[in-house]
């Protein structure tokens, strides 16, 4: 990743040296404190206090990944006065992903939506939101992901839609930008146009993170791309734009979305926000790890039990890219384990899991 950044940007010697130092520290050294005075310095100081001085190799995977991305941003000059201040170092990669052939195809495929029955249209937008999570640049950089799909290991679009009742607030905790965020906006549009949501809160990362994670400016970039596209994608983009203007969609970026901890440790203001939602939708692998706890749980641990701390109904839509998984049936686990594929980490399987089902689905 550091090599990709060095070749993507004409960084001067200071930034190049800071990135090389991060590479040395994170691969063989100890955790060093933050040296910047960015607005999130104070909150991070609390998250790293008991880790400073420890070898990186002894920190937890989730903690190390998050801190790596925070240090990387600082190393590129993101928080410092100067030419790189506020420059998203991953922007060229995200832009390439937004303008690639696979995203074009996904957007073109939306032209089929108006010809589908309401039920098929519901199913199609959920499938697109789930599998949109396959496109993830951090994962592509660290694996030989093929893009092949093998199906859902749990849940169904019907299970997802049965969570919704009277119109209410729906919160969507987004993951990657580009094609995945475009599919998420299609889902948001469906939630609003079918009256399942009276308004939607879209949660994105406050800063560039995990290469392709969506930030507020990515929301605008993807929206501009949609509105500049012909056909259904363009129509959806214009409706989303109007919903933003009307306050039916709000975009938020709480600092905790870049925190190195599980959602069970979320701060009170974020908990209160989720408690006010009729349904909260969590997208992607990292959000899933943070939602159920980034641990080697038995795969058959009930999903409801893993998320029992969460203050409301929720759905997780995720492609499996890491070992963490719960809520599977024993039969599913044994048949997947019998196969050759590393099904938990290959990015070829996905899931839809829900908790807090309404008693009489509409
Ligand atoms: O974008 P997503 O779906 O959250 O996936 C990110 C995943 O990619 C990795 O960074 C690399 O595999 C995982 O650690 C992480 O869970």
The CATH topology label of the largest domain is: Rossmann fold
Helical fraction equals 40-55%
Query: Would you identify the CATH H-level superfamily of the largest domain?
Result: Uncharacterised protein PF01937, DUF89, domain 3
Low-confidence stretches: none
CATH class of the largest domain: Alpha Beta
Rg from alpha-carbon coordinates? 20 Å
Span of the ends, CA to CA: 46 Å
Q: How many helix segments?
A: 16
Q: Please identify, by name, the CATH architecture of the largest domain.
A: 3-Layer(aba) Sandwich
Structural class: alpha/beta
Strand content: 5-15%
Would you count the extended β strands for me?
7
Envelope shape? globular
Order of helices and strands: HHHHHHHHEHEHEHHEHEHHEHE
Would you summarize the structure shown here?
The chain folds into two domains: 2-89, no CATH class; 95-355, Uncharacterised protein PF01937, DUF89, domain 3 (Rossmann fold), CATH 3.40.50.10880. It is α/β, with parallel strands linked by helices. Helices cover 44% and strands 11% of the residues.
